[in-house]
Write a structure and sequence with these properties.
Helices cover 37% and strands 24% of the residues. The chain has 424 residues and is of the alpha/beta class. Strand 2 and strand 3 form a beta hairpin. The longest helix is centred in the last third of the chain and has 39 residues.
Amino acid sequence: MRNSYLTKIPSALDQIEAATQASNTEVIGHHKGLRLTSHFQPIFSLVHKRPVGYEALLRAQDRTGKNIPPLAIFNMVRGEEETVFLDRLCRNLHLRNFLPAADDTSWIFLNVNPQVTVGGKRYGPYFGELLERYQIPPHRIVVEILEANIHDESLLAEAVDYYKNLGCLVAIDDFGAGHSNFDRIWRLSPQIVKLDRSMIAQAAHNISVRRVLPNLVSLLHESGSLALMEGIETEHEALIAMDSGIDFVQGYYFGKPKESLLGKEQEAEVLPQLCDKFKNFTQKISEKYHAELQAYVSKFLLAAGQISNGASAENACFELLNKPKAERCYMLNQEGKQLGANLTSPLRNTRNDPRFIPLADARDAIWSRRPYFRRAINNPGEVQISRPYLSIAGANMCVTLSLMINSGQSNQVLCCDLDWNETS
C-alpha cells in the first residue's frame, strides 16, 4: 500500500509540521530517514553594497551523517503527491528558520519545485495558511520559479498570479538556460529575473557574450524586471557582472551558503573592495580602447582635412585604409545617403566573407538611422566614435569613425569602419 502524504489530515499544514522538530536554535525536518535543515546564501545589491536577501537552500543527512545532495532527495520521491509534500516541508523549514534570525527587511528567496508550481493546488491550500500561522509578511518572500520545465502556459501564469496576489515577489530562475525566453518574461512580468550561471561563465571567456550582457540586462529592466546574476565564483566574473549593470549578485565569491545568518557584516566587506577594483577595471578597458583607436583617429582626421582641401576620397584615405583594422571608407550626404561605392582596404580584399556578398555593394544605401551619422550631423567638426556593433556591410563587429566636413559646395559625412572582432 502506497504512502499517503497529504490526503488524510484535514490541514496540509498540520501534516507538514508533524514532520518537523523545533528547538531553541532551529527547525529540523524528517523525511524517509533523512535529517533536513536550512542553509542561507546571501544576495547582494551592488548599489547598496550589502545583502538584501538570502536564498534558502536544503541540506540533508542520512542516519550515518552522510550528506545527501538536494537533487538526489527529490529524485528519491515517488509521484507528485510526495513531491508536493517534500517541497512544502522544505519551505516550512526555511521560513521558520529564517525569520527569527533575519533583520526586519531582508528578502528570503524560496525555490518552488516546477511540478508543485502547477500541481500543488490539487492537494489543498498551504502557503497562504503557512504565512498566516506564523504572521509572515508576504512582501519579505521572493518565490523562485524554474519555468523552463513548465509547459502549460495557463497553469504557469495562474501560479505566478497566486503568489503575486498573496503579496509575494516572483523571480524567474535560471533564465538563459534550457527553453527560457523573453516571451514568458513579458507575459509573466516577474519582479526579478535570475540569470543562469552559464551566462557569467561564458562571458568570462567570450568577448561576444560579454558585449551582449549589458544589453540583456537593459532589456530585462525595460521589461519591468530587476536582474540577478547567480553563480559568481571569481573576482573576474564579479567585475563583468558589475560592468553589465546587473542589480543583484549571488555566488561563492560573495558568500557561501551557511546555516546561520550571523556574520553577514563580514560578507559585506567584499563589495567596497570590489567597487574600488571595478574603477580600475573599467579604466583599463577604456584606456585600451582609446589607445587602439588613437592611431586611426589621427589618420582619419588627416584624410578628412585632405578631402576638405579638394583631394579625392580615394587618395585621402589611402594611408588610413592600409592600417590593419581599417575595412572601408565612404561618404554620406546630409540625408545619410551613401555617395558612391565603398573604398575598401587592400589588406582585406582576401578576407571578405563570400557568404555576405549580397551586402557588399552599398552605393545609394541610406545610413541616416545610424547613431554615428546623427551624432556627426549634430556635432560638425568633431570625430564621432561608435560603440562596437554588428556591421551589415560585412556581418562582423565593427567601430565606425564619422565626421561632418565641408567638401566643395556641400557638407558631407566621412565614415570609416574598423574591424572590432576582439578576442579577449
